[in-house]
Inverse folding.
């Protein structure tokens, strides 16, 4: 079987622990080619799973195949078909931005001309053209992160792993990465993404997995996961736009229509919206923890108080 015939990722009974503590426990997962997102609270085992799939650390038990290959036995061959952007920038600070890009392009087997062309496109997309000739050691932390991501995207390998790639990026850079992921997927490259930004998973991923306590506790499309929380919610607003009442429904047209008809009779001038569940609500229900975005908002509110 060639890697083009095999599932993107195939895991059965995967376990991994450190110092007697289980990080991943009897994990089963099969993914086809495409764009997939892995969600989970801090400490859930997301980075450990990515590192195993990328050949960086061994697993303790189970069966693991990436592109049909065992990350332990077929390590060298698999490394030539995948790319990884970790949580922290890993650029060579003694080289310029362009030199970092060209080096990665050549390591991936691109010709000098193709590597230079691709480097020029990505440096412009991530707004690094003005600093392309400067030594990467002189870059700010955000610039080094953008260069690291751009370098990992210079080739079009069969599979790219992005481990929380947009943490610390500004909105424009995050959008640039989203556009690049869409372009890579359209060209046939698969993407395995871990993220703390649920909007990112909602926008990009064809399939989402939720990891909690070392196990996959749910997986499916964004719509399928949202259905686990419930149907649509009818929100009633006051004159200032504040939500004063929420009416839970199963999401059927009949039930939503019945509530709207009642409101039209009893409070005809009230403003209403119909809201679907969010991935934040899915995350909270499945893991019992708020998302990173919710934690940040809470800290801001406490600071205001």
């Amino acid at each position: 079987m060639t890697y083009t015939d095999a599932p993107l990722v195939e895991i059965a009974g995967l376990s991994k622990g450190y110092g007697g503590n289980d990080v991943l426990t009897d994990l089963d997962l099969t993914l086809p080619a495409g764009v997939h997102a892995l969600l989970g609270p801090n400490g859930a085992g997301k980075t450990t799973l990515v590192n195993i799939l990328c050949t960086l650390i061994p697993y303790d038990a189970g069966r693991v195949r990436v592109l049909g290959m065992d990350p332990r036995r077929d390590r060298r061959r698999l490394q030539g078909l995948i790319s990884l952007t970790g949580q922290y920038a890993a650029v060579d600070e003694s080289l310029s931005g362009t030199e970092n890009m060209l080096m990665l392009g050549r390591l991936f087997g691109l010709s000098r001309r193709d590597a230079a062309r691709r480097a020029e496109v990505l440096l412009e997309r991530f707004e690094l053209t003005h600093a392309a000739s400067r030594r990467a050691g002189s870059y700010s932390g955000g610039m080094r992160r953008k260069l690291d991501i751009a370098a990992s995207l210079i080739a079009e390998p069969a599979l790219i792993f992005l481990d929380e790639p947009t943490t610390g990026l500004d909105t424009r850079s995050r959008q640039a990465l989203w556009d690049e992921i869409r372009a890579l997927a359209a060209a046939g490259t698969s993407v395995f993404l871990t993220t703390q930004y649920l909007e990112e998973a909602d926008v990009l991923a064809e399939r989402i997995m939720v990891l909690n306590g070392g196990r996959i506790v749910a997986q499916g499309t964004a719509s399928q996961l949202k259905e686990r929380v419930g149907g649509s919610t009818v929100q009633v607003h006051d004159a200032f736009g504040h939500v004063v009442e929420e009416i839970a429904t199963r999401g059927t047209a009949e039930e939503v229509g019945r509530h709207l008809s009642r409101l039209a009779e009893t409070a005809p001038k009230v403003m209403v919206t119909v809201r679907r569940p969010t991935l934040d609500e899915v995350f909270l229900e499945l893991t019992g923890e708020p998302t990173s975005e919710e934690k940040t908002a809470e800290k801001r509110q406490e600071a205001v108080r």
In short: Residues 9-225 form a domain with the Rossmann fold fold (CATH 3.40.50.300). DSSP finds eleven helices and twelve strands in the chain. The longest helix spans residues 171-186. Residues 296-305 have pLDDT under 50 and may be disordered.
